[in-house]
Amino acid sequence: MNKEFTIYTRWLALALRQQGFRIIRTEVNEFHPQFDTYVFENCEDLQIAISQLTKRKH
User: Fold this and answer.
1) Order of strands, sheet of 4-7, starting from the edge strand that comes earlier in the sequence
2) Which candidate in 31, 38, 56, 57 could, as Cys together with 7 as Cys, close a disulfide (CB 3.0–4.6 Å)?
3) Coil, strand or helix at 53
4) Are 37 and 8 in contact (CB under 8 A)?
């Protein structure tokens, strides 16, 4: 498992922050420079939270 996980959507990054996950850093999105990406420490809890949040959204 990679040590870092990049999130490309702001709503998901903010929802993860509200659940207590810490953003390590932000970077400019290489494909869409007008947007940022959000880098989190990758762990099993993060992956579970991402799955739950995206299921609720869709």
Assistant:
1) 4-7, 36-41, 23-28
2) 38
3) helix
4) yes
